Structures are given as structure tokens and as C-alpha cells.
Amino acid sequence: MRDWIAVIIAVLGVLLVLAGATLILLRALPARPAPAAGPSLDGPSALSSDESDTSDLSPAVPVGARISSAWKEPTAADRLIFWGVILLVLAAIAAGAITFNLGAAGGATPATR
Q1: Tens of pLDDT along 55-92?
Q2: This model's pTM is above 0.70
Q3: Whole-angstrom distance between the N-terminal and C-terminal Cα of the chain?
Q4: Which of 2, 79, 97, 101 is surrounded by the most beta carbons within 10 Å?
Q5: CA angle (106, 107, 113) in 5-degree steps
């Protein structure tokens, strides 16, 4: 039974990590433009000022600020990966790959002269 629990937890952990990685990759892909409703009579020069391609140049954020914001406010993908790693560690503990030995020994030490 212990092995089944370890396998189930490991599979769920791997799925969560893969789902988080997929979300990160999908966010990195460029957005597809909306398909045109039909050919325009005015041609491609008929773009209004609202539809023109403007790039938003935001100032560079320091690395320390990015790391602290990622730690304080993780994205959905980061949370999926985090919980997947926790489930993988729990699966390793359940399978016996990680063990904890907590023990204490009592008794008197022999006297030395």
C-alpha cells in the first residue's frame, strides 16, 4: 500500500510540475493576432490610430526586485511547480528513499580513571 501511495503522489507531483512549465511556456509564446473578418476595401493602410502597433517600453526592473516579487506574489505556474515539488518530496518519503532517524540513547558512560 505504501508503494501505491508513493506512485500516486509522484505522478501527481510530476503532472503539477509539467503543468506549471507548460503555463510558463505558453506565456512566453507570442500572442496570435486576431483573424481578419474579411478583406478590407481600403487595404492595409486603413488602420486607425488605435490599431497601430505601438510597443510599450517599460523601465528595466532590478533582479533583486524581480526575485522578491516572485517570492511574495507567485504566479499560478510558480504555485503549480511549488506544489509539484512538495508532492515529489512526499512521494520520496513515502517510498522510503528519504528516511528520518530520530533516536536517543540513554545510560551512564563508563567512568575513566
Answers
A1: 555 677 777 777 677 678 888 888 888 888 999 988 88
A2: no
A3: 54
A4: 79
A5: 140
